[in-house]
Design brief:
- Its main location: other.
- It comes from Triticum aestivum.
- It is a single-pass membrane protein.
- It contains two helices and 26 strands.
- The strands form three sheets. It has a 13-stranded parallel sheet with strand order 1-3-5-7-9-11-13-15-17-19-21-23-25, with no helix packed on it. An eleven-stranded parallel sheet has the order 2-4-6-8-10-12-14-16-18-20-22, with no helix packed on it.
- It is elongated and about 80 Å long.
């Protein structure tokens, strides 16, 4: 409950400071530019406050490893306002950069590709970023967690994605990305979370996604995807959440989807799916949600669904089912 501003000279009066942690403290005002003079700093956490203005330059902080400024009101209206990012290219030890949920605007500077080769976490979600993602982002080959969601980014995701071979989590939902889902996802064998929802992707779901054996969450909903759901999706044995809602998918639900026995959530509503509900879904003993509404499914509702004791949300409305409702 520290409703105060940081002293403007904090970086000059504490030159030996190595760690500055004021997360969730109700601080406001500007981040003092003098922090850039505290050259021993390794960790700065000013997250969840009400800081305003531009991010000061930290070009002298050669030992900086973690910079967390998420959930503030920081601004960056044009390329000149991203001077702070240029300065961070000097921080060769930087491993985590959290800038999500601020008021950053404009394009992501090309200098992002000159950040530390040790960078593992880059989170820029919940801002007002626009334009295309610079190809230089592909230089950050150590990235494990990349979050660009909830912005207004455009263009394709090819050209930089295929170089990020260590990615474990990619979240770019709620942007304006377009084009097809590239086959280069096959190179990202360590992916556990993939969210491409609420964009403008089109074309088929590439079967290569079935090779992502570590994938636990796959969200491709609210796009313009077409064609069948590839049966290879059933090879994702670690999958717990599959979201394919609100696209233009057609064809049948893969008969072998029941092989993904860890599935808790299946959302395929608002598509053009046909055929019957596979009885193999009765193998999904952990299934909590099954949403298949607003399709062209037909036949009888499988009685095996009534045996799923964990099922709490079932939506089969607006289809062409016939026969009795299983007890």
């Amino acid at each position: 409950m520290l409703e105060m501003v940081l002293p403007l000279d904090i970086g000059d009066t504490l030159p030996n400071l190595e760690s500055l942690t004021f997360g969730s403290s109700m601080l406001h005002g500007h981040i003092p530019a003098s922090l850039g003079n505290a050259t021993m700093l390794q960790l700065i956490d000013l997250s969840n406050n009400s800081f305003v203005g531009e991010i000061p330059s930290f070009g002298k902080l050669l030992n900086l490893s973690v910079l967390n400024l998420e959930y503030n009101k920081l601004e960056s209206g044009d390329s000149q306002s991203w001077e702070s990012l240029y300065g961070l290219t000097n921080s060769s030890q930087l491993s985590m950069l959290f800038l999500e949920n601020n008021q950053l605007q404009g394009a992501i500077p090309d200098s992002v590709g000159k950040l530390s080769t040790q960078l593992t976490h880059l989170e820029l979600s919940g801002n007002n970023l626009s334009g295309t993602v610079p190809l230089s982002l592909g230089n950050l080959s150590s990235i494990i967690d990349l979050d660009l969601s909830e912005n207004s980014l455009t263009g394709t995701i090819e050209g930089w994605l295929e170089s990020l071979g260590n990615l474990q989590s990619l979240d770019i939902h709620e942007n304006n990305f377009a084009g097809s889902i590239p086959p280069s996802f096959g190179n990202l064998s360590g992916l556990t979370i993939l969210s491409l929802a609420k964009n403008e992707f089109e074309g088929p779901i590439p079967p290569i996604l079935g090779k992502l054996s570590q994938l636990s969450r796959l969200d491709l909903s609210y796009n313009n995807l077409q064609g069948d759901i590839p049966p290879k999706i059933s090879e994702l044995k670690q999958l717990i959440a599959l979201s394919l809602s609100s696209s233009r998918l057609s064809g049948k639900i893969p008969d072998n989807l029941g092989q993904c026995q860890g599935l808790i959530t299946i959302q395929m509503d608002h598509n053009n799916l046909t055929g019957v509900i596979p009885t193999s879904l009765g193998n999904l003993l952990s299934l909590d949600m099954l949403s298949l509404s607003h399709n062209d499914l037909s036949g009888a509702i499988p009685t095996v669904l009534s045996d799923l004791q964990s099922l709490s949300k079932l939506d089969l409305g607006y289809n062409n089912f016939q026969g009795v409702i299983p007890p």
